[in-house]
Amino acid sequence: MTLAVFFGCTFIAFGPAFSLFIFTIARDPLRIIILIAGAFFWLVSLLLSSLIWFIAVKASNPQDEQLQKGLLIFGVMFSVLLQEAFRFLYYKLLRKAIEGLVALSEDGCSPISIQQMAYVAGVGFGLMSGAFSMINLLADSLGPGTVGIHGDSQLYFLTSAFMTMVLIFLHTFWGILFFHGCEHRRWWEIAAVVIMHLTVSGLSFCNPLYVGSLVPSYLLMVGAAAWAYLLSGGSAQNLRRFLLCKCCSRRGGGDTLGLMGCQDWYHWTPNGSEKGIIPLSPRPEKQVVF
Amino acid sequence: MSEESEESVPLLPLQQESMASALFNTDQNDNSERRRHDNSERRRNDNAESETNGQPQSNVQQVVEQDEEEDEELTLKYGAKHVIMLFVPVTLCMVVVVATIKSVSFYTRKDGQLIYTPFTEETETVGQRALNSILNAAIMISVIIVMTILLVVLYKYRCYKVIHGWLIISSLLLLFFFSFIYLGEVFKTYNVAMDYITVALMIWNFGVVGMICIHWKGPLRLQQAYLIMISALMALVFIKYLPEWTAWLILAVISVYDLIAVLCPKGPLRMLVETAQERNETLFPALIYSSTMIWLVNMAEEDPEAQRKSKNSTYDKKAPANRTQNEDADADDGGFSQEWQQQRDNRIGPIESTPESRAAVQALPSNSQTSEDPEERGVKLGLGDFIFYSVLVGKASATASGDWNTTLACFVAILIVCCSAFSPQEMNSLLVFASSSSLSAKVESSSD
């Protein structure tokens, strides 16, 4: 216990997320607001789902173990579905916000694109979800005690930290995938996100057999990362250029998320034409590099 | 280029006048400065051809209309930045309060109640407890309403001395007495041995520097830090001495009252702000957290020029008189260095600043708030809001049996409330903007 465990678990769980925050989000006030609002949406979804679970538990027989376990599984699945529903609601809100920003901007372009918003919203969801998972654990790890003294796993804190980290990353990638699916009306992408989320949450019932929950989650994360990268315009070529630190050949890139590639999903109607109308399908010949 | 520069010279009185009248039209609020600076920013952006170079500044009406359209964008663009500027102090105050609540047990111990909440909550039945808490909240709210009305009446009848005395007494109490108690409790928690002499020195220094920073002048960051600290101390006092149901009820009723007091035409807070604006004064520094320095008017006065003249004359005592005069004329550049002038000329075209033009600009009724950097537009939040949010988070963390999730949830909810457009501060600036645009509309119609 004590400080070493506290700092170790904190950095494992939140280190990557905070570095993402500092390097990509902290500079721009608009992104910080989108982050906090995303966290708030996740919070509301959790609140509602926990309310349902709480009512169900209070209304049932507390002695029945099977029933309680069943209610817990039901609670988790319902919470996952509600989180994804709130992600969709947040997507709707951000769409409206983009239209407002475009209408009010000087040159007909929104200062932030929908895929940047998707990324930031994903990080918001992930940070809040991770914080809710880990904070009480971290507070307890500061005090005296021995982990697993009653026969439980001794690795509890460590595996919780790793699980939190993978969950934050997963939420980020799910955000990108989900918003992309919503933009392009590809329902199978949305369904894939929901199924992945249900899988990861369901696998956590394998605990304390941590191999059963952590390893598949990490594999899923790698898959989701690759998919999100490809959807954001990345390719093997881009990756190679990035790793070899070659200058990108595109001009006027406004996308400060340097990992993402050059292509855009949409084209923005230039100033002078109707403001606020954003076609959904990408038109490569009129691509405005953003 | 030379023709243009010759053209610009006779045009500069016109430019100065139009700039001056743009200033005058858009009167005493933050928006005016923002617009003027934004206009100059735009010119800076049109690098190669500045709009004012060689062209007369378009007539006043066009400037004002353009400014009003652009003001909406500016509100949105600067709105996000302002919100973030608010996040940081609110977060800091809440962090201080939560850290104290979680570590120092004094502030969660029940040691009686204030005289404003005489009814106890240790009652037999739930109904009795509810009734007591409603009565407590009613008494507290009526005390607050009476005090607010008293303050507004005093301000309206210009009893500034009474108000200042009141503010000084309350900040003395906070800075010396409450911080002494706080320090004592922190020492007790961490079992630190301390003697009275050291404590007296520490509290004396803390208090005196605080009084100076808050009521007079001081570094901006230090003033902000002190305001955050006294808000946290006040919030801790409320968390300790208000029983639970009373506290939640009071929070709810105060938010309703806050909305009413600011939005209703006869609301005391609205009258206070409007009176302050009519008189072109800033509200009391001890009650408002502001993220930029309030500069005094007439920062660039005639005196530096006179001083420089005398300095030059003392340097060149032995020089002939006409040479001294020439040097004076050359050196009298109004305090602007050569490189600054060159930069300015590159950006917005050659504008010559002569003592006459400077005097003309200064003779205008300028607003009492200027800012160095147009993008550092200040944002103001009343200390009452700080205390309110901190009491909310502190009470949640104190009563939630050590659960950090509750604290975190409250924290995020409060940040969202800060973001939202309906905080009283935003309503204030909306009111100000509305009144200023109506004023400029009147001037426009009168100038037709």
TrEMBL record, chain A:
> A Pfam family matched by this chain, by name?
Aph-1
Q: Which UniProt keywords apply?
A: Membrane, Notch signaling pathway, Transmembrane, Transmembrane helix
Q: Which domain of life is it from?
A: Eukaryota
Compartments (UniProt record):
Membrane
| Entry GO CC | gamma-secretase complex
Quaternary structure, from the entry: Component of the gamma-secretase complex.
Stated family: Belongs to the APH-1 family.
Provide the function of this protein: Potential subunit of the gamma-secretase complex, an endoprotease complex that catalyzes the intramembrane cleavage of integral proteins such as Notch receptors.
Output this protein's name. Gamma-secretase subunit APH-1
Organism expressing this protein natively: Cyanistes caeruleus
